């Protein structure tokens, strides 16, 4: 799985959608993630620190899988401009 910056991710996602117009599918999944291990999250909560959650976005067409991580507000704006 390739972790891309948001702009190249959206470019590649657009390419995936264009390749699958006549045949095929593209699956997009979104997941809340802190990008930290469970141990680090537990230490942060016991210390009273706030955990910053990000949105992990994955896309696949069955052959290629791409992903990116972004703040929720940032990716919402990017998807609105793409769609």
From TrEMBL:
Q: Which UniProt keywords apply?
A: Cytoplasm, Ribonucleoprotein, RNA-binding, Signal recognition particle
One example of a Gene Ontology biological process annotation: SRP-dependent cotranslational protein targeting to membrane
The terms describing its cellular component in GO are: signal recognition particle, endoplasmic reticulum targeting
| Keyword match Ribonucleoprotein | yes
Q: Does the keyword Ribosomal protein apply?
A: no
- Could you tell me what this protein does? Component of the signal recognition particle (SRP) complex, a ribonucleoprotein complex that mediates the cotranslational targeting of secretory and membrane proteins to the endoplasmic reticulum (ER). SRP9 together with SRP14 and the Alu portion of the SRP RNA, constitutes the elongation arrest domain of SRP. The complex of SRP9 and SRP14 is required for SRP RNA binding.
Q: Which domain of life is it from?
A: Eukaryota
Q: Which family does it belong to?
A: Belongs to the SRP14 family.
A Gene Ontology MF term for this entry? endoplasmic reticulum signal peptide binding
Q: Which PANTHER family match?
A: SIGNAL RECOGNITION PARTICLE 14 KD PROTEIN (PTHR12013)
* Gene3D superfamilies reported for this sequence: Signal recognition particle alu RNA binding heterodimer, srp9/1
Q: What is this protein called?
A: Signal recognition particle 14 kDa protein
Q: Report the locations given in the UniProt record.
A: Cytoplasm
Originating organism: Fagus sylvatica (Beechnut)
Subunit structure comment from the entry? Heterodimer with SRP9; binds RNA as heterodimer. Component of a signal recognition particle (SRP) complex that consists of a 7SL RNA molecule of 300 nucleotides and six protein subunits: SRP72, SRP68, SRP54, SRP19, SRP14 and SRP9.
